[in-house]
Backbone:
């Protein structure tokens, strides 16, 4: 069993359902074993009290509003680009708290996104990018908490939720 945890931002249910539906449409079925998610950290140790304490502390803040600002074609898939200065500040605070355990990927500046297609050909990604871009207008979503997941070499197992204070 993996001792690695992933940390994501929890979306309001209406937005979760919206992005899950897009994944159902565009993600290859054999590879679509996760719900839509906003990953903050990819590789942290499980059971580390300082990590739990930092998540509990950050969750004392209110919900975050994120702007879904655009659609990105990253070659083998498509994602929605998210913008939020508050989220970037929170992520930097968590990076500082998690510093002893961060891998190179988790030390990078956060580029928040929601992937709705991955592991496809460049042709398919370009097509989906064009389809989704046709009627796209930026909109806002609300993040309501943090979630931790156990990495299971593919699927993830939900561990804890840290709801943001209201």
Residues:
């Amino acid at each position: 069993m993996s001792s690695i945890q992933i940390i994501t931002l929890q979306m309001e249910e209406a937005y979760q359902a919206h992005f899950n539906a897009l994944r159902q449409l565009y993600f290859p079925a054999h590879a679509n074993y996760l719900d839509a998610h906003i990953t903050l950290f990819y590789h942290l140790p499980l059971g580390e009290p300082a990590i739990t304490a930092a998540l509990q502390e950050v969750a004392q803040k209110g919900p975050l509003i994120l702007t879904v600002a655009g659609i990105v074609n990253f070659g083998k898939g498509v994602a929605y680009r998210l913008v939020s200065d508050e989220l970037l500040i929170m992520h930097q605070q968590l990076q500082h708290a998690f510093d002893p355990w961060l891998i190179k990927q988790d030390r990078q500046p956060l580029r928040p996104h929601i992937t709705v297609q991955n592991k496809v050909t460049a042709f398919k990604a370009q097509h989906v990018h064009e389809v989704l871009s046709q009627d796209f207008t930026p909109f806002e979503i609300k993040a309501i908490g943090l979630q931790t997941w156990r990495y299971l070499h593919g699927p993830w197992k939900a561990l804890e939720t840290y709801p943001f204070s209201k």
